[in-house]
């Protein structure tokens, strides 16, 4: 057998049938649903008098529409009628078809891409599908995860398979030590800025190199989560001891004998020597600086000490027009500094940066400090488990003392599907994954950055270089 990439090994091991040169029937180990991509599928199943083939390999979560007000879990109520209907429909569907549900008032409720790994349900070698593009997150643990369309959910529920179009292989190698004051969020923003929002379109991306190997499991999730913002159809990292330790801690149902047996299989999950990648990119960790988006696409990002680009210097007419349009929407001027730009809101959370490590980083910055008077800042843990751990570690107390709102878990201000939204013209320092026009609210202006940078912005009232802030408080 010729050398294979990790991606090809995962696809081959889950191929039920080869349909043609470009398509296979792919088996799914786990299918995750949320409140807004599943209703039509269940309606179609009923109309066709079909059942769910494997209910125990399904998981449902209410996360996008849920309010995050700081009330007890038992008191959480979705007041918006349309959203409440979505949640009640999901509950009814899951009850009827025997599917596990993290509902509005579930104590472990949270964001799907945080809940699934923290319960040990994502393991190396799996194929995981979900009606959400950031399912690429699971590649951090050596699983092939990707988003599916609403129309495909019915097929998955009925057959546990998907007609899947094969991707090409792309490898991104990063070596070296990330500089002080930077993080994996800065790394992925740099990568997206360099290769473009379509730079990985049609590819399954494998991240490799000493920088990647040194990352924690949660940091790897941030990396793989945002790979889709470069157009990636999947993102993968070779499982290693960091992966195994994470799974051992989280997968409480996996006994020692089963774990040992699985470990033998997981250690075969790597790209063979001589495996061919259609495209390869190489980066050096020392190139990374704190990054901030200035525009309305994740690839419109610069180092915090750089100047906002000029449309006249863009490479072609299309790029010039896109730059000009983004500047107009964001209310920015070409050639001006991004550092020092006043902000109104700060949001720390989301499936990109709502994990316990992210909250620890932000809390270390704000400890003993105060949120700027003109800023409304909120921290939204990614799950009930993250929230409880942050409270036990004293992180919540640090945020509250500094003037942050400490809220219940959910997708929150990542997208305007709940009541955590920006008002028109408000500017937000956000740890989320997308800065599209209106993403956080009609007319809202989003600047993507790391948890440390968002914390620094909350304290200073403007976009600030966290490296400078840290020196001031040494």
UniProtKB/TrEMBL annotation:
CDD domains: IPMI. Heterodimer of LeuC and LeuD. Its cofactor is [4Fe-4S] cluster. NCBIfam families: leuC (TIGR00170), PRK05478.1 (NF004016), PRK12466.1 (NF009116). Keywords: 4Fe-4S, Amino-acid biosynthesis, Branched-chain amino acid biosynthesis, Iron, Iron-sulfur, Leucine biosynthesis, Lyase, Metal-binding. Its EC number is 4.2.1.33. The lineage of its organism: Bacteria, Pseudomonadati, Pseudomonadota, Betaproteobacteria, Burkholderiales. Catalyzes the isomerization between 2-isopropylmalate and 3-isopropylmalate, via the formation of 2-isopropylmaleate. Residues 9-461 form the Aconitase/3-isopropylmalate dehydratase large subunit alpha/beta/alpha domain. It comes from Collimonas pratensis. The keyword Oxidoreductase does not apply. Pathway: Amino-acid biosynthesis; L-leucine biosynthesis; L-leucine from 3-methyl-2-oxobutanoate: step 2/4. This is 3-isopropylmalate dehydratase. SUPFAM superfamilies: Aconitase iron-sulfur domain. It catalyses: (2R,3S)-3-isopropylmalate = (2S)-2-isopropylmalate. InterPro entries: 3-IsopropMal_deHydase_lsu, Acnase/IPM_dHydase_lsu_aba_1/3, Acoase/IPM_deHydtase_lsu_aba, Aconitase_4Fe-4S_BS, Aconitase_4Fe-4S_dom, IPM_dehydratase_rel_enz, IPMI_cat. It comes from the Bacteria.
